[in-house]
């Protein structure tokens, strides 16, 4: 199925692909009740929309998610997208400096596209989790190889941490999500949409222990062929004499603030289909 989609997207108009994809969304809303309820409560309780507006916002949320998936396969098929950004000097300055740095993404927008389209002479190691199909992993590997990006799979023995440390030591970039716990017991509780929510401590502790710069990167869809890239540097004003765990927690709080700001602007592009606050 995925290989057929790849072949079709080499010449199939994206707008038509979106339209066909949109026909399947009511079935997801009907059969994935857990995801529907979580998304509905988010729009109803956190964004403050009315009942009917929240229902249609869930559809729009699912539709945006489908667009992001189609766009990924369109990239694998050789299609291109326009990126616009007023924040690229932040990324460029760090990419051209000698020390390595960390790039944190989220499940808002299309973070994966950043690894394909943000150019840097530095080597990048991107943390990847299991669960994707062989087709997706093969296509990712092909795309990343062109961009000097190494996929670093999460391993049970935690050996991926040594790989990430090595990349930072060599002046490279480490890229990972900053909004998913993935079963880890190490978390920070940060204010998020009015209530405490758990964010993974690992990325921020690694950055604080290594004393490297950290940027939050959000790639948000604006139209069929256009994305906006938002780059926010974290922890710039933190006292370097603070204990590393204190600096890590403050950066996590900054990240949560950045994520909330972006999600409030693009609420249908936060792809979170479970109760984030439990």
* Count of strand segments: 9
* Strand line-up across the major sheet: 1-9-8-2-5-3-4
Spatial extent as radius of gyration? 19 Å
Proportion of residues in extended strands: 15-25%
State the low-pLDDT regions, or none.
Answer: none
| Count of alpha/pi helices | 11
Structural class: alpha/beta
The chain-level mean pLDDT equals: 88
Instruction: Report the end-to-end length measured between terminal Cα atoms.
Output: 35 Å
Specify the helix fraction band.
40-55%
Count of spatially separate domains: 2
What does this structure look like?
The protein has eleven helices and nine strands. The protein is an alpha/beta fold and about 280 residues long. The protein has two domains: about 1-75, no CATH class; about 80-270, no CATH class. A seven-stranded mixed β-sheet has the order 1-9-8-2-5-3-4. Strands 6-7 form a two-stranded antiparallel sheet. A hairpin with a 2-residue loop joins strand 6 (about 185-190) and strand 7 (about 195-200). It is globular.
Summarize the structure.
The chain has eleven helices and nine strands. The protein is α/β, with parallel strands linked by helices and 278 residues long. Strands 1-9-8-2-5-3-4 form a seven-stranded mixed sheet. Strands 6-7 form a two-stranded antiparallel sheet.
């Amino acid at each position: 199925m995925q290989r057929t989609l790849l072949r079709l997207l080499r010449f199939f108009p994206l707008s038509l692909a979106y339209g066909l994809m949109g026909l399947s969304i009511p079935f997801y809303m009907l059969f994935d009740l857990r995801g529907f309820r979580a998304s509905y409560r988010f729009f109803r309780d956190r964004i403050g929309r009315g009942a009917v507006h929240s229902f249609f916002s869930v559809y729009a949320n699912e539709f945006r998610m489908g667009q992001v998936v189609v766009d990924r396969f369109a990239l694998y098929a050789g299609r291109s997208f326009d990126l616009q950004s007023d924040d690229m000097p932040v990324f460029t300055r760090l990419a051209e400096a000698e020390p390595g740095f960390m790039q944190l993404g989220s499940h808002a927008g299309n973070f994966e596209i950043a690894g394909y389209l943000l150019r840097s002479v530095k080597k990048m190691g991107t943390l990847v989790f299991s669960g994707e199909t062989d087709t997706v992993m093969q296509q990712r590997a092909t795309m990343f190889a062109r961009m000097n990006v190494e996929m670093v799979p999460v391993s049970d023995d935690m050996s991926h941490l040594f790989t990430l440390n090595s990349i930072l030591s060599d002046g490279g970039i480490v890229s990972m999500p900053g909004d998913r716990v993935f079963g880890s017991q190490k978390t920070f509780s940060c204010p998020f949409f009015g209530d405490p929510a758990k964010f993974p401590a690992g990325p921020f502790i690694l950055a604080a222990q290594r004393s490297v710069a950290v940027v939050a990167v959000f790639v948000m869809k604006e139209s069929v062929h256009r994305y906006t890239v938002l780059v926010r540097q974290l922890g710039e004003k933190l006292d370097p004499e603070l204990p590393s765990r204190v600096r890590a927690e403050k950066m996590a709080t900054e990240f949560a603030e950045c994520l909330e700001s972006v999600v409030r602007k693009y609420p249908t592009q936060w792809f979170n289909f479970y109760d984030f606050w439990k």
